[in-house]
Amino acid sequence: MGNRPALRILNLAHFIDHYFMLIFPTAVLALHKEWGMSYSDALSLGAPAFILYAAATLPCGWLGDMFRGATMMRVFFFGIGVSAILVGLAPDPLALMFAMAALGLFAAIYHPVATAMIVNLAERPGRELGINGVYGNLGVALAAAVTGLLAAWISWRAAFIVPGIVAVTLAVYYLFPSRPGGGATARGIERPDPSPSA
Fold first, then answer.
1. Which CATH architecture group holds 4-174?
2. CB under 8 Å to 44, separation ≥6 — which residues?
3. 34-46 burial code (b ≥16 CB/10 A, e <16)
4. 192 DSSP assignment
5. What are the sequence ranges of the domains in the chain?
6. Contact at 8 Å (CB) between 42 and 163?
7. Degrees (nearest 5) of the Cα angle 82, 86, 88?
8. How big is the chain by its Cα radius of gyration, in Å?
9. I need a labelling partner for 182 at 20 to 30 A (CA). Which of 39, 74, 135, 173 fits?
């Protein structure tokens, strides 16, 4: 039970990972009109995000073995959140493309790092991975609907900025070392060295 808070954080991260990657395909419906671009040209601005999302998975797994899992997940939350905010603030297509590339790069952290953490934290890894998969699928399911609502009610920029702020807030609140799960690593839970005998 002691690992439950850390597992919840990793589940939320899975939701965010898939949700953030699917904001752009819906937001571009409003973006291309505002910027006077064809739909296909505007959609291509998101290509670097998906390329890096795939290509960076291997190096992110290597980094997950080299550094604490909690540290990598802080980088994930801060990185994906700030990148989404930068997409929402992008003044032109080139800036948006670079911000989207950063978003895909940070999103690539999740699967190799978090999956290893879940396996090591969970008493019943199969069950926990199943629950974790539900969260990821919810991110896929809700991304288009929530993005469409934010774009319609406010703007396509808000569709990136609002969830970006949420991700950064989660990083600050949950993932500092003093928080539950702060000692988790990609290989397991990092425990303090035993006290020297008297």
1. Up-down Bundle (1.20)
2. none
3. ebebeeeebbebb
4. P
5. 4-174
6. no
7. 120
8. 18
9. 135
With 0-12 / 13-18 / 19 or more C-beta atoms within 10 angstroms meaning exposed / middle / buried, residue 91 is exposed
59: its two tokens: 């190096």
Residues 6+ apart with CB under 8 A from 168: 77, 78, 81, 82, 85
| Amino acid at position 14, single letter | H
Cβ atoms of 184 and 8 closer than 8 Å? no
Distance CA 99, CA 85 (A): 9
pTM of the predicted model as reported, rounded to 2 decimal places: 0.85
C-beta neighbour count of 111 within 10 angstroms: 17
Side-chain-side CA neighbours of residue 191 (13 Å):
6
Residue type, 122: A
| Predicted confidence (pLDDT) per residue in 26-85, tens digit | 999 999 999 999 999 999 999 999 999 999 999 998 898 888 778 888 899 999 999 999
User: By CB neighbour count within 10 A (0-12 exposed, 13-18 middle, 19+ buried), where does 194 fall?
Assistant: exposed
Token duo for residue 28: 């571009």
DSSP 84: H
